[in-house]
Amino acid sequence: MTIESTGKTGHAGAIRLGMVGGGQGAFIGGVHRIASRIDGDYQLVAGALSSDAERSKASGAELGLAPERCYADFDEMAQAEAARADGIEAVAIVTPNHMHFPVAKAFLEAGIHVICDKPLTSTLKDAEALAEVAGDAGRLFVLTHNYSGYPMIRQAREMVQSGTLGAIRLVQMEYVQDWLTEDLESSGQKQASWRTDPARSGAGGCIGDIGTHAYQLGGFVSGLKTDTVLADLTSFVPGRRVDDNVSVLLRFEGGAKGMLWASQVAPGNENGLSLRVYGDKGGLEWHQEQPNHLWYTPFGEPKRLITRGGSGATPAAERVTRVPAGHPEGYLEGFATIYREAAEAIRAARTGASVSKDVQFPGIADGLSGMRFIDACIRSSNEGAVWTKV
Amino acid sequence: MTIESTGKTGHAGAIRLGMVGGGQGAFIGGVHRIASRIDGDYQLVAGALSSDAERSKASGAELGLAPERCYADFDEMAQAEAARADGIEAVAIVTPNHMHFPVAKAFLEAGIHVICDKPLTSTLKDAEALAEVAGDAGRLFVLTHNYSGYPMIRQAREMVQSGTLGAIRLVQMEYVQDWLTEDLESSGQKQASWRTDPARSGAGGCIGDIGTHAYQLGGFVSGLKTDTVLADLTSFVPGRRVDDNVSVLLRFEGGAKGMLWASQVAPGNENGLSLRVYGDKGGLEWHQEQPNHLWYTPFGEPKRLITRGGSGATPAAERVTRVPAGHPEGYLEGFATIYREAAEAIRAARTGASVSKDVQFPGIADGLSGMRFIDACIRSSNEGAVWTKV
Amino acid sequence: MTIESTGKTGHAGAIRLGMVGGGQGAFIGGVHRIASRIDGDYQLVAGALSSDAERSKASGAELGLAPERCYADFDEMAQAEAARADGIEAVAIVTPNHMHFPVAKAFLEAGIHVICDKPLTSTLKDAEALAEVAGDAGRLFVLTHNYSGYPMIRQAREMVQSGTLGAIRLVQMEYVQDWLTEDLESSGQKQASWRTDPARSGAGGCIGDIGTHAYQLGGFVSGLKTDTVLADLTSFVPGRRVDDNVSVLLRFEGGAKGMLWASQVAPGNENGLSLRVYGDKGGLEWHQEQPNHLWYTPFGEPKRLITRGGSGATPAAERVTRVPAGHPEGYLEGFATIYREAAEAIRAARTGASVSKDVQFPGIADGLSGMRFIDACIRSSNEGAVWTKV
Amino acid sequence: MTIESTGKTGHAGAIRLGMVGGGQGAFIGGVHRIASRIDGDYQLVAGALSSDAERSKASGAELGLAPERCYADFDEMAQAEAARADGIEAVAIVTPNHMHFPVAKAFLEAGIHVICDKPLTSTLKDAEALAEVAGDAGRLFVLTHNYSGYPMIRQAREMVQSGTLGAIRLVQMEYVQDWLTEDLESSGQKQASWRTDPARSGAGGCIGDIGTHAYQLGGFVSGLKTDTVLADLTSFVPGRRVDDNVSVLLRFEGGAKGMLWASQVAPGNENGLSLRVYGDKGGLEWHQEQPNHLWYTPFGEPKRLITRGGSGATPAAERVTRVPAGHPEGYLEGFATIYREAAEAIRAARTGASVSKDVQFPGIADGLSGMRFIDACIRSSNEGAVWTKV
């Protein structure tokens, strides 16, 4: 267990961070900022927090940014920061989805590491183009599939890899919410507006916003590659322009099967992300709303409750655990772990040192995989819910 | 709340019951017997507990049956009992699935009410034939889809019917077990042997044994009619002759959607039957292993825990509740409720009286519907998991 | 696992049972009747269901009793039944507490086994007198502390006895309800009326009604003998004549400590009976509202969920388990287990055979112990909540 | 909901913070540092992280402190920092308990705000002396009873204050752990060593370390003043010099009653802090290991699950909520809320502005109250567990 990141922290050694998006009234930008602060690895020093110059400055002032480093234009920011001796080393991209591609491209090409919110882009075409840019850039690309930062998810993955569950047969994934049960987007609510607008969010609604999280988690833990999917996408709320409920069957390479249910119209569910993985020797269950608990059943024995920081925790979980068992860590700590892992890689990149293979964060390949999943699900559904190659 | 059935009980008024199957070493026969005793409505007086004459007598003796009413042959039993002045009024059929049809036919044609374990038969053809027989017989046919006897399931149905959830959009069904994770049938275990033998169980394994329970429950509560299904059936255990894992997508008439997962190879699950139903005004969740709890969320308000016998219980739940809130009723009481409901109908049939419309038990139509579901799922899966009309 | 009692059942071998109390409108009588029927060991054939002759006859008729065996007077019943060749072998006493003593005395002295609801009597003096009678009678005295019939409670006791927890240090007991939060007795509600009336219930209210259950369970599982108690009894509801909330500290022989909280005025609690036992090697937790689960933690290892009928169940639990894991057994089955155990002893008494030491039921000693606990708590509280020898 | 503190953050406006204690190998220091960073209100700039000069420098370097602001002596630090124009505005004290008093005194007298870990001191005498110092100092004294920072605890308090529960009758408090089940202190484990050493921890072991947390929480939520307590303290582990298990009965002014159980020897419990509060109109339950859930039952209605950020949350909870419902906040966020509240008060103190009455943090009075509780419990127990005035 480590209370804090063990590398150089404090302001001397902190990584200089910029941010695009996340101005006043935004949500996920604040989450990224807290995540970047928790372990003391970063210092936010520049931002294009809004494309409106006044708003960008005002937002930056609240966060203590120097006025000259509050940009209105991300391109200008990339150039200006790349040119400074004390310029940012990494940028966090927290805009709506359709801006991920141009912003990430600009910073990667300016030689600046990118930490980008998910999904990767709003279209598969953009994703493929970004993958090419990222491949050439020689800079880090970190995608904040934050749920893979939870210690018990790290442990679940490690248990699968070490063969504790035997050969994996089944992966059951869910991400269930209720906040779009009614036509919230017509009320002008900011989150609902852009997330249900195909121009800003991409063709996928629920499938892109939360389905990809569940899909990423299933793949991260099981280590399985998806072969084909069959998806039935529905827009239950009249007038909604994107799907708000998604049922997917999956067939993995090697014969394992899976189901994925994502919904934003199931009253009584807040962020019901859950994962159940079964092999021929045992099973695992995990629920995001109680993230410190991992249920493990060796076949033929009683179920065990493995707790973060507790006696059954494995090294992969311990490595990213901050406080003792019974003192819950939550969403922000899981998110911060992605930032902490990225910090280890960024510091290594300063000197060309190699990064421990224990360091884990989702990257461009995960982003591309997620976009291919969204694309295949939409194609499958459009053709009547038929089996479709990912 | 009623502690006991309110009709005539005790031995004078008790319904004279026979049983086919359920001899020494059997499982479900004992469950039916307890269920028949709990409310004092029945008295077991005859049986063809085994097709082996010695075993039938020995089994009957243990249960206090008169030797002359311990039959080896169900046909003989039907004739003999029909001819007695004090002959049985109803028979419980607790044999393997393939015997349901001939046995039920014999007793119905002898004028005796039938209480039959599920699924209805082992083939759709038998089911259709039995439906015809039952339609002509003028006798009651009760199918023990026992989970619909749980008070909170009755309440869930009532809440849907009264519009509490609004228009139903989603029905998520699960029945997950782990007892067939390994090749138990090769060990000679009696339950595993017949339930994985297509000749005795029918073409469906997991889909017929437990998938139908989940399906029946979803339909019972939601009131929805299934239009088409798409099923992916798998036999994970090498050598197994029937499916042990089932993933189904459902489309209901009127536009609602559903998913059904049934598995017998998911370590850590005992009898994980659960139901979640969501409408545009609220959601419900119920788990068979905690049957006294029903979770209800009116959209936009905190979730409520409704307990059997508690302050939020509706008349439909109260009607079949025996003991106060916080004193759990379980599987046997739920099962007994089917027997109690059947008793009300059987007593009414004695005199031709009408039965209250509150009395609810699954019958031949439910059995036929279940067989059509199994048949459609197997056809769908055999054709590569494609959409198939039920 | 046994589905049904394995001894002689059916009407030939069934034990002839009578009942005192439990007429129309009563509660616990119906529970006893169901409990007596579940395993098929008993047949109810006589009763003094009410002291009102008409009501007794009407109640008996509903239960199928012969009119001549519906008595208005328990003394007359004891004499008459003792004189019949087919007279009752055992009587169930389900009256208010103050009648337990005279009724039990009458039947014991008539040579009839007694199955009596708890607490033993309404005063310690009566209890001591009854203990003397029972000691002389040579008949069985069974006290329905029903919670000790739950399989996981049997297992908990066995685990303690076998040293799995090491030396016991702590026993934490609770029984929490809310039904008397308001002045229900003034409304004329039958249960509330007699249970808050010292003349019928005894000097203890909450302490006698439910505190004794928790106390019995703690002793049954831990095997510890109480040395001294300190009790703070409160009547929160204005005008209430007995305690409705009880806080007790306990010191056991040998140095273990305990706490017991019983309340009838804690909104949100139905029948919150729970037990936690800790030794120097491990801990156990059990909650009556989820009785099929026993949580066991070997110190330094993850917590295990042991389920009734599951892979971690011990022989003591298996012996009293009826249906497989994941099919919940509840309050009525636990209660029925006391009846089943009593049946084994009653049958053995027919022939003088010895009873297996596995057969467990609470008896006169437990009843006396409970009354001494009530008495000590009341004395302690009356003196200002001071340490008091039990 | 606010993602981040709304005041001036970033390095320009950040509060300059120092720390005493918390060097390499310590635990709670790291927690305080993370808590201070989460909302961006503080910047750590100086420390006496260890009384060993080398270790202090090395620990400071890891945290990015300037070498000249890494002190070995807290007195020297207080003087030096008070003399700097950019000196610290507040100091976090995270030493063992016996050092709280001298360190706090030194900084308060140097005009520096104090944020101090709990319990206040190691003796009641020190506590009273410190209270006097604090009263004279005109500087803020913040005690990190961190659990009162949880949003649902804020809501619980607000619900009690607004009369939702009616008149409070019962307050049941628990804080149960298992980490001292064996003689860990003899192994040299750092936390166990000082926490079981009366010279460093104070006369109370379990009562001081965790009992006070439960007591503070009970008082914070219920608003009740304790009149008398009766405590039974035990040291179960042979050789242990302080109590490791505590049973307390409480009588509050006005007639309410309470029980408090704190233990460090109950296997299977990690940080089992829980609170249940009952009034004549309703009840509340909260468990620290699932801190985002608050269970509320209006008497006579179904129980409600109120979630942090969800539809049932009150303004007091919303004020300290960072992320939406279903994304769990944990221990570190709750701790950070104390820091955030302190920051509001510290910023106000810069200008003499008044602080909103919504701002809540435990202070010197709470610390003194906790010490009086510890003292009364020890006196009570030493006299045989008798009623003792607090």
TrEMBL record, chains A, B, C, D:
Q: Where is the GFO/IDH/MocA-like oxidoreductase domain?
A: 153-285
Query: Any idea where the Gfo/Idh/MocA-like oxidoreductase N-terminal domain is?
Result: 15-142
Matching SUPFAM superfamilies:
Glyceraldehyde-3-phosphate dehydrogenase-like, C-terminal domain, NAD(P)-binding Rossmann-fold domains
Q: List, alphabetically, the InterPro entries matched.
A: Gfo/Idh/MocA-like_OxRdtase_N, Gfo/Idh/MocA_oxidoreduct, GFO_IDH_MocA-like_dom, NAD(P)-bd_dom_sf
Source domain of life: Bacteria
Q: Which PANTHER family does the UniProt entry name for this protein?
A: CONSERVED EXPRESSED OXIDOREDUCTASE (EUROFUNG), OXIDOREDUCTASE
Q: What is this protein called?
A: Gfo/Idh/MocA family oxidoreductase
